[in-house]
Amino acid sequence: MSNIRALRGRAHGEIPTLTTDRLQLRPHTMDDLDVLIKLWADETFVRFIGRRPRTEPEVWKTVQSMIGSWALLGYGYWVIETRPAGEFVGEIGFLEGLRPVSPAHTGTPEAGWGLSPDHWGKGYATEALEAALRWSDEIFPDKRSVCMIEEDHHASIRVAEKCGYTFAYSTSLDGGPIHIFERIGT
To answer: N or C: which end of the chain has fewer CB within 10 A?
Structure first.
């Protein structure tokens, strides 16, 4: 926990909204809860994110922690939606997961993304991650972030590599192998 305490003073009250040509990254609202419950119950979606559907209370707690991360750390997750229609696409952002991995990356923002299977293969993940990383390059003092990707999740590995992440090391999480990628921003 000592590394997490070093993040004090980075918090702020306003969650930014980011836009790209096709997407908007915006703060979570209560109106997102139903679509998020449906998304996290989808076995195809969770295949590479914990490998099990989440219950309604688990999704609710996750949304609360995503919003709380902004207040505590000055970064967190956004909802991704299409522009201008506002169709839900997924979630993306940065977290401090205090992951039980070795070596630990506590104190380094961890990028993550998850898109509804209906929106896979459209380039949305890359577009959203590029927007989030432009923002993070201005916010994170050392401009370093990591992401954790299951070794057989080739689509997410491609997204990470397109956006400047490089393989750092393999470790295990929850008894299974996982790859850690890192990026130093510009």
So the answer is: N
